[in-house]
Amino acid sequence: MPVLILIAFLVIAYLDATHLWQKKSWRELAVMGVVWCLGLALSLALALNLPVPSPAQILARVFGPVTEWLTRLIG
Amino acid sequence: MREEGYISPRQAAVLLWFAVLPTAILFLPSLLALRARHDAWLAVIGATLAAAVVALIVYLLALRFPHYTLFQYCELILGPVAGKMVAMVFVLAFFLLDAVVIREFSEFMVTAVMPETPALFFSITIVAVAVYAARNGLEVLARCTDFILPLMVTFIAIVLLFAMPEMMPRNLLPILENGFRPVLGGILVAWSFLGQVVILAAYGAFVNPPRALKASLTSGLLGIAFFLTLVTMGTIFVFGCCEAARQTFAAYALARVVSLGQFFERIEVLFLAIWVGGVFIKITLNLYVVALGLATVTGLKEYRALVASLGALSVAVSHLLYRNVAEIRHDLLMVEPGWTLAWQLLLPLFLLFAAWVRGKRRTGT
Q1: What is the pLDDT of residues B236-282, one digit of tens each?
Q2: What are the TM regions of this chain, as residue ranges (chain A) (predicted)?
Q3: Domain of residue B184, residue span
Q4: Are B151 and B274 in contact (CB under 8 A)?
Q5: What residues make up the domain containing A64?
Q6: B321–A55 C-beta distance less than 8 A
Q7: CA angle B91, B89, B347 (to 5 degrees)
Q8: Is B360 contained in some domain?
Q9: Which of B296, B320, B324 is most worth mutating to test chain A (most A CB atoms within 10 A of its CB)?
């Protein structure tokens, strides 16, 4: 699985980054690189079963009480 | 950053339908039956009125900043630093929404249709197509809807028409049995879907002329309310509120009960095909808006290079989000209303208020 993920991300990098490199658009390349690295790191972490906190849990911790309060208030 | 090209007001309205309806049709009827009982359809209408407030805010902002996207006028209103931060909140919110939609799609396919296939397969294939479509820009996506919309409308009509023998209008009575409070609770749940009309603030800049945005917002909202009310009423008619609340995917179950004279059966496959088309538009639109927003915030000249990486990241995030479909339902009931109220209503309202106080506008460009 990690090998497949690596191949998929390398294909994305090859298709997008080579074009940007030739055009010398470094800013685009930097932003794309950050997103690409985030995606690769997250995918590998998930494939290797590392504990990653879910954004849904973070949202639930903040907005769960808000929603509960609203529901009690009007519903 | 803004792209070349324009879409017509009609296409903007249709895109708005696709920005809300696909997941709402699938998840909302049963959640509403859980909260509002027989009065689920009243909750849809109430939530539409609430979404009309968002539409009004979006329209007023669009009049102040014609041909500017949401992410651009964030900076114009609040200055470069605070504006970029608020725009980034919108980008993250749209990104998270995209990931949730991808997860809802793959979870539905695994739960209801193909339980043996890994969920990852569904999300990767639909995102691959969405990346391809989003790279081609908004005009192409708008023309995609011209093809999918007639199919979707026809099919919703066919399902509702042929489910009629099973329908019992008595299920709708008594209206307002427990007063208005359950309806208000239902509005809160339905709101988190209908509030997504805020996405028009992001792509409304490409509608020409900007004043026509009023027509797109009105017809968009009316269409959404019409179809959603019909489908919700249909599920209540057929299943009654208790059974509808137990079904995870009530609209899909509605397509399954259609059976005419032992030969016209199992049309849920057709429902599936059209629904996948609709979700594809929704995911692509969100992906496009995220890429456009990120390109605007970081000051790029082009968003196209970001789309594939963002798509890959959103697949990973979508698999991180929830453990199973029960968690999605719990989130839609207990977390999403508060979160969507914050970024789809309060944040645009704050932007409009700030623009009004600071007297910012860009007319005549």
Answers
A1: 888 887 887 788 888 888 888 887 777 777 888 888 888 899 999 99
A2: 33-52
A3: 9-355
A4: yes
A5: 1-74
A6: yes
A7: 115
A8: no
A9: B320
